[in-house]
Amino acid sequence: MTDTLPTLGLLLAGGLARRMGGGDKPLRTIAGKTILAHVIERLAPQCESLLVNANGDPARFADYGLPVVADRVPDFAGPLAGILAGLDWMAANRPELDWLVSVAADTPFIPHDLVARLHEAREAESVPLACAASGGWTHPVMGLWPVSLREDLRHALTVEDERKIDRWTARHGCARAEWPAVPVDPFFNANKPDDLAEAERLFVTLPRA
Question: Disulfide: which of 23, 159, 169, 207 matches 174 by Cβ 3.0-4.6 Å?
Answer without folding.
Answer: 169
